[in-house]
């Protein structure tokens, strides 16, 4: 374990909660930051708060409501339906540059609290059309943050090359599978744990979990 401070970009969902457990295993001092951008489901913020309390992690909530002024999306507006990207287009949950903004603010916060490490759950493998989830973007932003603040931050992306089943495997390795299954919110309809089962986020999460559990059962048999 590194005797260093880390800040985890944290939404209360499966991916960032897995990252939080990963950070707790890797670093001696862990803090989390959640961005409040007017999510349709306030439960997301409550969920994030509850998890950090349970894990004894200091939690920062930053107001990013300006995101709504810049770009309305299905995550913040009731009148926009959640749809998969059609014909290679971006899904309606897309807010352009969201990770660019979040990670830049996380960098400023890291500098304020004296953290050299920033963890984010972005993932290129189940690339859903978000260009700022790509590994090349993260590496580029890492250089930019260091130049902007004359610092030596390290951006960590433990999920970058994992598919959803492998992300559950990592959660299990970290002894956090049940916690993540029961306490996290991924569902676009705001239903905690196993969710509504119908929305794209639930389907992705369930498929990954079933694949992982089937592989595990196969190995144990
Ligand atoms: Zn759902």
From TrEMBL:
ATP binds at residues 10-20. Binds 1 zinc ion per subunit. Its cofactor is Zn(2+). It comes from the Bacteria. Keywords: ATP-binding, Ligase, Metal-binding, Nucleotide-binding, Queuosine biosynthesis, Zinc. Its EC number is 6.3.4.20. The keyword NAD does not apply. It catalyses: 7-carboxy-7-carbaguanine + NH4(+) + 2 ATP = 7-cyano-7-carbaguanine + 2 AMP + 2 diphosphate + 2 H(+). GO terms for biological process: tRNA queuosine(34) biosynthetic process. The keyword Ion transport does not apply. InterPro entries: QueC (IPR018317), Rossmann-like_a/b/a_fold (IPR014729). Pathway: Purine metabolism; 7-cyano-7-deazaguanine biosynthesis. One of its GO terms (molecular function) is ATP binding. Zn(2+) binds at residues 187, 196, 199, 202. Catalyzes the ATP-dependent conversion of 7-carboxy-7-deazaguanine (CDG) to 7-cyano-7-deazaguanine (preQ(0)). Belongs to the QueC family. Homodimer. HAMAP family: QueC. This is 7-cyano-7-deazaguanine synthase. It comes from Metasolibacillus meyeri.
């Amino acid at each position: 374990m590194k005797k260093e401070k880390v800040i985890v970009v944290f939404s209360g969902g499966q991916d960032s909660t897995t990252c939080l457990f990963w950070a707790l295993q890797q670093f001696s001092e862990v803090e989390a930051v959640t961005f409040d951008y007017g999510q349709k489901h306030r439960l997301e913020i409550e969920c994030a708060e509850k998890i950090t309390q349970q894990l004894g992690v200091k939690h920062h909530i930053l107001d990013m409501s300006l995101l709504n002024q810049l770009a309305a999306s299905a995550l913040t507006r009731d009148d926009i339906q959640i749809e998969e990207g059609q014909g290679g287009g971006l899904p309606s949950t897309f807010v352009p540059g969201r990770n660019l903004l979040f990670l830049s603010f996380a960098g400023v916060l890291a500098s304020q609290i004296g953290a050299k490490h920033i963890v984010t759950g972005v993932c290129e493998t189940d690339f859903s059309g978000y260009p700022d989830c790509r590994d090349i973007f993260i590496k580029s932003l890492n250089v930019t943050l260091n130049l902007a603040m004359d610092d030596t931050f390290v951006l960590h992306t433990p999920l970058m090359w994992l598919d959803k089943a492998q992300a559950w495997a990592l959660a299990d390795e970290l002894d956090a599978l049940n916690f993540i299954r029961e306490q996290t919110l991924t569902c676009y309809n705001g239903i905690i744990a196993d969710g509504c089962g119908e929305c794209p986020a639930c389907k992705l999460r369930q498929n990954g979990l079933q694949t992982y559990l089937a592989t595990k059962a196969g190995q144990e048999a």
